[in-house]
Amino acid sequence: MVCRHCSSGGVFMIDISESIEACANHYGEQADAMRSYLLDGQAAALTLHNRGPLRFTESGALAEEIRAAYSEYGFYIFENVLSAEELDDIKADLEMMRAQFPTGPESKVNAEGEPALGADAKALTLVWSKPLGDPLGGTALANGRHQVKMFEPEADAEAPLAAPFILLGSLQFSDACLRTYAHPELLQVAAAINGPDFAPFNEALFIKDPGIGAAVSWHQDGVTHWDSPDFDEDIHGFNFMAQVYGSTAVNGVWVLPGTHKQGKLDIAELVEESGSERLTGAVPIVCNPGDVVICNRQLLHGSFPNCGFEPRVTVNFGFHKRSSVLGVMGGGIHSDAQVFDEAIVARRSRAIGYAIDARKQRFPDETPYEYQPFLASGDAYQWDADARRNLKDYNLDDLSI
Fold it and tell me: What is the pLDDT of residues 196-236, one digit of tens each?
């Protein structure tokens, strides 16, 4: 794959020609339509002017052309943000966590009969799906924001009955993900978009294993501020999507550019107008391992089941404007609905402090990010055994709006 606007030599490292054929073949009578959709979407995605290295002005603001492209499209791909060393750390943690996963959705033990990852957690941790299924689409889950159900292809006969899909509260389970959460340039982006007093949101791992990875039905993330008199394109915050193995038209997130400015959409109507869930004008987020995507939470997005051969694991974490959460009744998707006051925001922000120190310990030659609310309050955080205990169930305070 060649991209005319990439800084990294213009070449993507992932050849998905075989995966496109495998995916199309899973769609039966729709095979030709699906094949064309994947190829056309991939080609369209590579013409957009919204990818390149992360750059800032001399004053520390996000480069104007990056900010403008993010505003136009609702997403931007920062190339080569995570080093090979950092990616190796994440992969090692993924292997460790997978060994601790429960044997199934109802199980509390891993394959060795030991207590499974998150078995004693108060909050929901591991979300499962049937292979190539769409567990959220067309249901009342997540406030019913997944309005339509995606096509669910038949998985191969050897596929498991259920597969891990989303790991919530991921910072308490992976030191590597915790450190990535404090990447100083990414936190600088958060400050540039949401102000230096930006607030945390939610962290998760999205797991799309080859041949079994589930779909995520088309949706917009925001639920709270659609009718606010202060509504703007940034009021529901954004997510970073750090790619461990890369993202393709087959296994990746698809978006409908510009929809983050259009308010709450009637997704069922869009599907009807397009004739299927292959929405007209949508493009996939295509990027290499180590690239990090910033994606507006109001942008219409979703993903098809991963019928291909390449894995996708996305280290997902987001941030809000503080004004979007303070005094607001939470949306109740990622945590219990509650009015977010200063105490809750401060308690949830501890994860930022722990992450900054954890990253400083792992990468001592890197200049750590300084979070403005900590400078104002004088709070100091150290990543140690006590901090690890304090981080348990931290996502009960996710600032969901």
Answer: 999 999 999 999 999 999 999 999 999 999 999 999 999 99
Helix (H, G, I), strand (E, B) or coil at 185: helix
Token readout for 339 is 């009015």
Question: pTM for the full model?
Answer: 0.94
Here the tokens at position 379 are 């709070």
CA 18/CA 88 separation, integer angstroms = 26
- The pLDDT tens digits of the residues spanning 155-167 come to 999 999 999 999 9
Beta bridge partners of 127: 166
Please state the domain extents for the chain: 17-397
Sign of CA dihedral 73, 268, 254, 203: positive
Which residues make beta-bridge pairs with 172? Answer: none
Q: Could you tell me which residues come within 8 angstroms of residue 92 by beta carbon, excluding any fewer than 6 positions away?
A: 176
Q: How far is the CA of 202 from the CAs of 76, 192, 393, in angstroms? A: 20, 19, 12
Read off the tokens for 233: 């394109």
Domain 17-397 has what CATH class? mainly beta
